[in-house]
Amino acid sequence: MAGITLADLAAQLDAELRGDGNVVIESIAGMDQAGEGQITFLSSSKYRKHLADCQASAVMLKDGDAEYFSGNALIMAEPYVGYARVAQLLDTTPAAASDIAPSAYIADDAVIGEGVAVGHNAVIESGAQIGDNAQIGAGCFVGKNAKIGAGTKLWANVTIYHSVVLGEQCLVQSSTVIGADGFGYANEKGEWVKIPQLGTVRIGNRVEIGACTTIDRGALDDTVIEDNVILDNQMQIAHNVQIGYGTAMAGGTIVAGSTKIGKYCIIGGASVLNGHIEIADGVTITGMGMVMRSIEEKGMYSSGIPLQPNREWRKTAARTMKIDEMNKRLKAVEKQLEEKGE
């Protein structure tokens, strides 16, 4: 989109317009950098002091902050959401593919919907189904009997294994692998015996998955990711994991097999979740959380030692190594006091 008037933006965002509705907005920028033809936003009142110096053509802000800005404004309850909506309207990201590239391979019995685009050297195998207006980027692989929903976009080099189901309006970033074998083996006298992974992966609608993330197929049942889930880059989702509606998980997180994560959870980056546990709805786990047991109640949970200056950290580590010894000494003192009747 080349540009949009402030009045049109107000209508599309259901925002209150104050000022000149004929101003044309061409892009969005941060408050300290925005200039003519750009719109910015104020989502936290602690940055209100910067409004006086703001050079943007318009600002999205809350009603409580409106009196501190004399220029063109869009008044709304959630300016940060407004920022997201405007960014979508002005998005210039190119398509993952356009038309059907001559170098793409599409099996004769694959079902391709209307308006589908397939990039160079992509492979769509036998029995696969691609929904209307989906985009399959260059070098992607869509395995046998896989299903890709309408409007879903796969960036370059995404691998979708056989029988995986990916819903509508999903976005998968480059080099992600969905449906690889889960880590399933039996041990017979020191020799590993592979367990074929007979389930698949079922992903709902409006799910976004970052680059280089791996989601393993189920061993017997399926790995399931519900609608409106967002997964960051470089994550490992093991076999038979279930992730509930609206959950967000940051980069580097590892989830072991058969763990069930509830709805509207927020998992901080580099967290590790043990296998065969359950996480209740509405749980927040801060970054680098190590979750060894089920969490049954909504709330915020943390683990690990926050960053310290090296000298202080070494003292903390040394004391930590002595916790068992200190515990034994404490129990001995308690026993002595008990024997003395104190």
UniProtKB/TrEMBL annotation:
GO terms for cellular component: membrane. The active site is at H239 (proton acceptor). Keywords: Acyltransferase, Lipid A biosynthesis, Lipid biosynthesis, Lipid metabolism, Repeat, Transferase. GO terms for biological process: lipid A biosynthetic process. One of its GO terms (molecular function) is UDP-3-O-[(3R)-3-hydroxyacyl]-glucosamine N-acyltransferase activity. It catalyses: a UDP-3-O-[(3R)-3-hydroxyacyl]-alpha-D-glucosamine + a (3R)-hydroxyacyl-[ACP] = a UDP-2-N,3-O-bis[(3R)-3-hydroxyacyl]-alpha-D-glucosamine + holo-[ACP] + H(+). Residues 22-89 form the UDP-3-O-[3-hydroxymyristoyl] glucosamine N-acyltransferase non-repeat region domain. The keyword Repeat applies. NCBIfam families: lipid_A_lpxD, PRK00892.1. Homotrimer. This is UDP-3-O-acylglucosamine N-acyltransferase.
